[in-house]
């Protein structure tokens, strides 16, 4: 059965600039393809106008409703973010705030509209912070209805207080590649199970 | 298919004292039973001698090996903890440290020994901190191989700086009961899927 | 000696709407006045155009440079935020990202430009999350040069999964008022010490 | 005026084994000495029997009362911890739980008994997690009455998923040394101010 993934890149930089987060997301989407998951592209929040708020539509000019549709159209939601001050980027937190609206929305079986979807997390920084960023994202995504596969995170960070970027490593990192492959294999497996066997009605 | 759950209570208090965490764990185990999941009892870390360390056996007198066997014998691992200073209790962090040993252990298919198991989290405090505690536990448990079902947490906390305990609420809390039921229904569903369809070989 | 405070309100809502964060900030600024600290008003990020980025000036139309000047003109920086999904608001994280630029800026003594300034934190939510939000803000603010007085936080949150807003409590909360007074007294004391005795040259 | 510092090492290993946390604590205590702060030794929690609980004395055999006296006898409290699963060690959380008792204790002026003391944090890991560990410790320590000087943290972590230990770096890390010196200079300055000008009565 064909599955699909949709990725959001929460880099602070628009597509005019290269992004380490994009590099890691590309690697994760490629790894997912090897498990029969077709990527439906990556959207950079910095290219969009995602309005502040906690509803699913903050009115004219808000780019969130289109992004929301793409999230709900996919089986796997891949959330990629850089680390700033040890935290998810403000764009990543903005995404969580907009997803919070799922708490007030139900499908025709009385379930959260996001159910049966798997979330994976990709985190990149010069140094330090990936596990905490994953903790924030896992808890936020789980709260709004996503399921987290075992080892559902891939990441790269450098040594303390250094300034290398992941996009500057031509071969990436072997350890990161292994984490990416594991997250993809397990994410695809779980998404396939849930696509065939939905959570019970509410 | 019959499933089983094993619960750890990370209260700082031994069984000689009543525990709000125990009350919430009892409610969660009861809710799981309604979905065909038999509880195999609850162990309180405060009653045991779980040694500091990051291996699966810290030597003579260490109670962890027996607890570890019970975790691995069950389909669902329920981790319950009180909130202290906004964090998981030191007993809960001790449990995560001992689970960290899974990173060096593989089953006969080259997979983490904990795979195919679902984790649920139950958090209780006088006030404030449940979401952060869940974030810490979800990320730690996911890192050592557990899968987190959608809405995989139940909790109760009171108003800021108040001192009511969950065990002092005779009827508990309706909202907490609803969260407990949802976590149980979705945790049982996911555990059943994974029991029948294991993650792929490593 | 007269001291001054500057407050940022990181509510997702503009001034067109009432804000619980504003109520708590007003109470904290009032308490600071009783210790000789004059408030220089409160700015709501939602009223401004604070651009994404990690420099002190992201170009034409960016409202951050004016806000940055107000932060540096004051002895006490008060950062107020609501809680969303257990985290600081995306506006609060945006503020931290812009403050990150301080790492590349020095005063004429080779010190961070923010040194000798005290930070206080005010956190409000319907339920749960204040301590973790304070943790994120304390660590971020400390990293960019602010000093945190003992008990440097005031907050209000309601019972788990309830929906009361702080602005709906006519008398606020006695316990919150006590925390506010303590944070103000200790913040003013520390700011006065640092205003008279600057940290050493770098 | 002579100042004193007291350090706790929350490594999971006893003094029978070498500790990266100890190396970083030694460097920080040495840096403090250059600012007139005499170290009163370092205690390893793993060598002690610090009982689980949230009072200042958990009864016969509890080593906490002696540690508590040393904390209160010093002007600067240095809390050092390794990172496990991205979190402070269980020993560090145990220390915070015991410090929580300060909420119920007052000096003869109605103030928290810990007031006028500065806290510094030293964090070490193979990879990733120092900022989050600092966030947890800053917030916990601030909650129980400690003041956090600007840049009050030093740390070292290696590249993602690598296994180098700080104690294996003969020369340590230049960047870590700079952070250590800054934390020491600013911590000593602030402790000196507070030793001469106590926070106001409660």
Q: How would you sum up this structure, described in words?
A:
The structure is a homotetramer of 202-residue chains. With 202 residues, chain A is an alpha/beta fold. Chain A has one domain: Rossmann fold (3-Layer(aba) Sandwich), CATH 3.40.50. Chain A has five helices and six strands, in the order βαβαββαβαβα. In chain A, strands 1, 2, 3, 4, 5 and 6 form a six-stranded mixed sheet that branches. Chain A is globular. The interface between A and B is medium-sized, with 32 and 32 residues.
Q: What is the CA-CA span between the terminal residues of chain A?
A: 26 Å
Give a short account of the largest sheet of chain A: 6 strands, mixed
Q: What fold name stands as the CATH topology of chain A?
A: Rossmann fold
Low-confidence stretches of chain A: none
User: Judging by the overall fold, what is the CATH architecture of chain A?
Assistant: 3-Layer(aba) Sandwich
E-strand count of chain A: 6
In terms of quaternary structure, the protein is homotetramer
For the record, the count of structural domains of chain A works out to 1
Mean pLDDT of chain A: 97
Computed over alpha carbons, the radius of gyration of chain A is 16 Å
């Amino acid at each position: 059965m064909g599955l699909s993934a949709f990725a959001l890149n929460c880099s602070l930089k628009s597509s005019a600039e290269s992004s380490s987060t994009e590099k890691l997301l590309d690697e994760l989407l490629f790894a997912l393809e090897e498990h029969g998951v077709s990527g439906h592209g990556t959207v950079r929040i910095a290219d969009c106008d995602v309005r502040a708020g906690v509803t699913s539509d903050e009115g004219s000019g808000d780019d969130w409703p289109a992004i929301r549709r793409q999230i709900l159209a996919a089986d796997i939601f891949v959330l990629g973010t850089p680390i700033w001050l040890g935290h998810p980027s403000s764009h990543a937190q903005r995404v969580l705030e907009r997803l919070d609206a799922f708490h007030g929305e139900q499908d025709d079986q009385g379930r959260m509209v996001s159910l049966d979807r798997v979330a994976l997390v990709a985190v990149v920084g010069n140094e330090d912070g990936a596990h905490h960023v994953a903790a924030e994202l896992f808890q936020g995504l789980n709260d709004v209805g996503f399921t987290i596969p075992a080892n559902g995170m891939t990441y790269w960070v450098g040594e303390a207080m250094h300034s290398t970027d992941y996009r500057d490593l031509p071969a990436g990192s072997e350890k990161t590649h292994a984490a990416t492959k594991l997250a993809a294999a397990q994410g695809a497996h779980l998404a396939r199970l849930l696509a065939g066997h939905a959570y019970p009605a509410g």
